[in-house]
Automatic annotation (TrEMBL):
This is histidine kinase. SMART domains: HATPase_c, HisKA. Residues 571-787 form the Histidine kinase domain. One of its GO terms (cellular component) is plasma membrane. Keywords: Kinase, Phosphoprotein, Transferase. One of its GO terms (molecular function) is phosphorelay sensor kinase activity.
Length: 787
């Protein structure tokens, strides 16, 4: 540890204190030096700023005048000279001194303005003009800044150069105001809604038509509420077009729906950008136009659809001679491909393509021919028509119709078939004329008015009239009067007018016969023709009339002979019954042993005699029945139990069935019921059918008699398993004049049984049918009505 004395400590402290004082003094000097340097810099900057302000003030177009609170003014000499003062002014009233000072009126107004500005602090503006000069000054005054003291600072600006422009702009403004008023009145009176939008697209102004369309109270109410004419929002809404017009600075147009007076209408909305950033717009009601346009489009589509269904080819060329439309027949007729037509080929190219397809007439000078067809576009006359004869025999009828818009409509009609038909028609007419004149019949054609139009040579020769009379086309009444004397009964000539009128007016065909005075007979008729005329025909039937008379006389003779034959057969049948009855009676006595016992051989012979007598008796009865039926024998009508009748018929044929050892079955259903008819004849029907079946069967055969019925009809069926009938015998089964033929064993295949059965069944209003095949048996069906 170092020891220090008190003196040394004291000296050390004094040195420290002295250093601190010196340090403080140096720091203060440095600070004062820095402040001085900064103040000097600020002073230099202030001097420079002052120089600049003074230079700016000297070059400024406006000069300042300070009006103190006590009324004194401080005015630069340059300003005083500009205001035309002869000596410096001390107050505002001094501004009127001198020959070129301000007028007293301007000075009084300036004093009032300064007073108001000083008291109320309200700035003012005033324009003054020194007397005797054309200079104008603008005065703008306001309360002076506090550092200038109490007073009013007035800035004076020479606006003489701008006065002419101001006057021009004033007159222009007045003119524009007048135009604006006129435009506003026009907009207000416009019948279509119009509006103006601000930059934010809010409504700023609307006209009366807009107010009426949105059913508003007035324009201010519509603007305040922002009622839009078109409903909706977003894309396609009322602001979409306005936004596009504002952003692109180009007019926007769109068609939008709107409800006006309760009706849905289509409006064409046009938005136009304004220089100030707003948008003006108006709406045109295009509902009727859209409907008309839609209707026109539908009409055009329907018309094109109809043209496609026509048989004629149609081509429509526009004013530029390009192909606008062609229908399907045109494309097929000229072999045009759709992809080639889609390019709207020009008229000349279409003709060249038609020529390449061989669908144009062959001409030597094709360019000249084509140039002549181009004249169709400018033709002032009506439509041009031509006939084109194409290679291959095709005939086209061409119609070129110029259109009001400068276009051309071409119609191509294929008349090949018509030409061929016309040629064929001419040929047919010549053939018809030749045929007409060479017919054996007499023909005449009368028109609907009754006049004779056509006739053949036979017609003229038959009536004995000259060609001159027929060529005058006489009326049917005059013709009938002319030929009346050639008829056996002249009054019969009135039939001719009646027939013609019936055929032409009533469209009915009528005919008749007439006798000529020379003994000839003709058949005539009036035939209605499709064209409304009447054909009068006459056919000579003299020979046929004579043949008819001869045939009639022969028929009468045959009828008389038939009656004699019928009477003879009836008489012979009755005469045969007497000896037949005697033979049968004596044979039965011999068989019964009245003449003594007979040997076995004699008994067999007697039984054969009895069988033959029975069959001969039946045959005689059949002949009598046929004879009486042919003469129209009556059928008795009574309520008949058909089941009892059928069982009685079955019992009647039992002896013959037993002798042949035939299996016989009877099936009579309860449904067979009762019918209205003749019980005797119905029994004979059943017996004939059973005897026919028995006669064709060998021993051991089978026969079935079946009967049933419905509510309206009764049915009888007789079937057997015999040899059946071939096709030829089947066709003659019901023929009473057919030769009977023989079955093996000597039995008859066909007799009078079936014809008699058919005769009796049809007399009852019923039907009978037979079905048979060789080796398959025979089935006969009878159906009888209940009533």
């Amino acid at each position: 540890m170092v020891w220090r004395s008190p003196m040394m400590v004291l000296q050390t402290d004094a040195a420290v204190m002295l250093g601190i004082v010196l340090l403080v003094l140096v720091a203060g000097a440095a600070t004062m030096l820095f402040v001085g340097v900064r103040a000097r810099g600020e002073a230099a900057a202030a001097r420079r700023q002052l120089a600049r302000l003074q230079a700016t003030f000297r070059t400024s177009p406006a000069l300042a005048m300070l009006v103190r609170g006590d009324g004194r003014i401080e005015i630069p000499s340059t300003l005083a000279a500009s205001l035309g003062l002869d000596q410096p002014a001390r107050t505002l009233a001094d501004l009127a001194q001198g020959e070129h000072g301000l007028s007293a009126e301007d000075v009084d107004g300036l004093i009032r303005d300064v007073d108001v500005a000083q008291r109320a602090g309200r700035p003012f503006e005033r324009a003054v003009m020194p007397q005797g000069t054309e200079r104008t000054f603008a005065l703008r005054g306001s309360r002076a800044p506090a550092d200038l003291g109490v007073g009013v600072l007035v800035w004076v600006t020479d606006i003489s150069d701008a006065r002419v422009e101001i006057e021009r702009l004033g007159s222009e403004a007045a003119r524009l105001a007048e135009a604006y008023d006129a435009l506003s009145g026009l907009i207000e009176a416009a019948p279509l809604p119009m509006w103006v939008r601000a930059a934010d697209l809010s409504l700023a102004m609307v006209n009366t038509a807009y107010v009426d369309a949105v059913e508003g109270r007035d324009a201010d109410d519509v603007v305040v509420r922002g009622v839009e004419l078109v409903e909706g929002s977003g894309r396609g809404g009322p602001l979409a077009g306005a936004t596009a017009a504002r952003d692109t600075r180009r007019p926007s147009e769109q068609v939008l729906p709107a409800t006006i007076d309760g009706e849905r209408r289509s409006l064409r909305v046009i938005d136009v950008p304004l220089p100030g950033g707003g948008v003006a717009g108006f709406a045109v009601d295009v509902e009727d136009l859209e409907r008309a346009r839609s209707g026109a489009k539908r009409f055009a589509d329907a018309q094109r659809g109809m043209l496609d269904r026509l048989s004629a080819g149609v081509a429509h060329f526009g004013p530029d001679r390009g192909l606008l439309f062609c229908n399907q027949p045109f494309r097929r007729l000229f072999a045009m491909r759709n992809e080639w037509l889609s390019d709207r080929p020009e008229f000349d190219r279409v003709l060249e393509r038609m020529r390449e397809a061989g669908r144009l007439p062959e001409v030597r000078d094709f360019p000249g021919w084509k140039a002549e067809r181009r004249e169709w576009f400018v033709a002032t006359d009506s439509a041009t028509e031509e006939n084109w004869h194409l290679p291959g025999g095709t005939h086209l009828h061409v119609v070129a119709q110029p259109l009001p818009d400068g276009g051309l409509l071409l119609i191509f009609e294929d008349r090949t078939e018509q030409v061929q038909l016309a040629s064929a028609r001419d040929t047919l007419l010549r053939v018809r004329t030749a045929t007409f004149d060479n017919l054996f019949e007499a023909l005449g054609v009368f028109a609907a008015d009754g006049r004779l139009q056509l006739w053949n040579n036979r017609f003229r020769a038959l009536w004995g009239v000259d060609e001159q009379f027929l060529s005058s086309h006489p009326r049917v009444d005059a013709f009938a009067e002319r030929i009346a004397e050639r008829l056996a009964t002249p009054s019969r000539s009135a039939l001719i007018p009646d027939l013609v009128r019936s055929a032409t007016a009533e469209r009915q065909q009528r005919g008749g016969r007439v006798a000529f005075a020379d003994g000839r007979h003709f058949e005539f008729a009036g035939v209605p023709l499709p064209d409304g005329n009447a054909l009068f025909t006459m056919l000579d039937i003299t020979d046929s009339r004579r043949a008819e008379q001869a045939l009639r006389e022969r028929a009468d003779a045959l009828e008389a002979a038939d009656k004699v034959k019928t009477q003879f057969v009836a008489n012979m049948s009755y005469e045969l019954r007497t000896p037949l009855t005697s033979i049968g009676g004596f044979a039965e006595m011999l068989h019964g042993g009245y003449a003594g016992d007979l040997p076995d051989g004699a008994v067999t012979y007697v039984e054969a005699i009895l069988d033959s007598v029975e069959r001969l008796g039946l045959l005689v009865d059949d002949v009598l029945d046929l004879t009486n039926g042919g003469q129209g024998a009556a059928i008795e009508r009574a309520d008949v139990n058909l089941a009892e009748v059928l069982r009685a018929a079955a019992e009647a044929v039992q002896p013959a069935i037993k002798r042949r050892r035939i299996d016989f079955a009877v099936e009579v259903a309860r449904s067979v019921g009762r019918v209205q008819g003749d019980a005797k004849r119905l029994r004979e029907v059943a017996e004939h059918l059973l005897r026919h079946a028995t006669g064709s069967l060998p021993e051991g055969g089978r026969i079935l008699l079946h009967a049933d019925g419905t509510a309206t009809r009764a049915r009888i069926v007789v079937s057997d398993d015999g040899p059946g009938l071939d096709a030829d015998s089947l066709t003659r089964a019901f023929d009473r004049f057919a030769e009977p033929g023989l079955q093996p064993g000597g039995e008859r295949a066909l007799g009078l049984g079936l014809p008699l059965a058919r005769q009796f069944v049809e007399a009852h209003g019923g039907t009978i049918a037979i079905v048979s095949e060789p080796g398959e048996g025979t089935l006969v069906t009878v159906e009888l009505p209940r009533r």
